[in-house]
Design brief:
The longest helix has 13 residues, at about 25-40. By secondary structure, the chain is α+β, with helices and mostly antiparallel strands. The chain is elongated and about 60 Å long. Strand 2 (about 70-75) and strand 3 form a beta hairpin. It has a single domain, classed as Winged helix-like DNA-binding domain superfamily/Winged helix DNA-binding domain (Arc Repressor Mutant, subunit A), CATH 1.10.10. It starts with 14 loop residues before the first helix and ends with a helix. A three-stranded antiparallel sheet has the order 1-3-2. Helix content is about 55%, strand content about 15%. Keywords: DNA-binding, Transcription, Transcription regulation. InterPro entries: ArsR-like_HTH (IPR011991), HTH_ArsR_DNA-bd_dom (IPR001845), Metal_resp_trans_reg (IPR051011), WH-like_DNA-bd_sf (IPR036388), WH_DNA-bd_sf (IPR036390).
Amino acid sequence: MDTTAFDVKDLKQFDEPANLLKALSHPIRLCIVRGLIRKRKCNVSYMQECLDIPQSTISQHLQKLRSTGIVTTERSGLEVNYLLADPRIEQIIHILFGEEDCES
């Protein structure tokens, strides 16, 4: 039996991709990421207005996305904008939702 397709010698190589997928595995986080693809960057207040959920909830989801390197921040005076930090994420979202749904 050929077992070369399942190389368990270096399972560490799967840690980072698995963590990215875990971070994306919540509907609100998927929505935030797709919104950032559409807008390129935006702040928490804008997200709160669009999603109609508490700012603290959005901030918790953004922290999860930041901790895995999916999003990063850009400060402009007092305003903090969020933007995608990992180009692979945009590819994943396009696969899941289709190009048309992400660009409009």
